Amino acid sequence: MPALSEIVLRYVIGVIVLRVIYVLLVNLTGLPDLEASQVILATLPATDAGMQIARRATRPLVVADWAKVWAVLMVIYVALMIMPALFFAASGRVEAAPDAVSALGMVVLASGVMMAIFLMIGARIPSGGRS
């Protein structure tokens, strides 16, 4: 199992860059700011993580290895995207609308599923030396 520090850094940079581009596009073009788009853009860098891990692995990876990677990326995702929304944007809405917590939970669930899908897609991308 390769070290996760560089892979996590690449994931964080990817999430931040995609989020900044998305916010700029939404604000400059008037595109709707959809939660589904936010979920996809936040989990898309997991494709690179899956590809890097598969390429750098020195042994065949088992489900437990992928679960560890998924859990680390989910913790980073929740810390970067969900916690700020919970503490700043949603704090006023939670008291007024208890459904906001439920909606936030659905976003986390959807993100977890998408993260797993993108990790597996990335793991199946062939390296340059293989066909």
Describe the fold and architecture.
The structure is a single chain. The protein is an all-alpha fold and 131 residues long. The chain is built from six helices and no strands. Helix 3 (46-56) packs parallel to helix 6. The mean pLDDT is 82.
A few lines on this structure:
With 131 residues, this protein is mostly helical.
How far is it from the N-terminal to the C-terminal residue, by CA? 23 Å
The oligomeric state of the chains shown is: single chain
User: What is the β-strand count?
Assistant: 0
- Please trace the helix and strand order, writing H or E for each element: HHHHHH
Estimate percent helicity.
over 70%
Radius of gyration: 16 Å
> Quick one: biggest sheet?
none
* Number of distinct helices: 6
Low-confidence stretches: none
Strand content: under 5%
**Bulk shape:** globular
Give the class from helix and strand content and strand pairing.
mainly alpha
List the helices and strands and how they pair.
Blueprint: H1 4-29, H2 35-43, H3 46-56, H4 63-89, H5 91-96, H6 99-123
Helix pairs in contact: 1-2, 1-3, 1-4, 2-6, 3-6, 4-6
Task: Jot down its keywords.
mainly alpha, 131 residues, globular
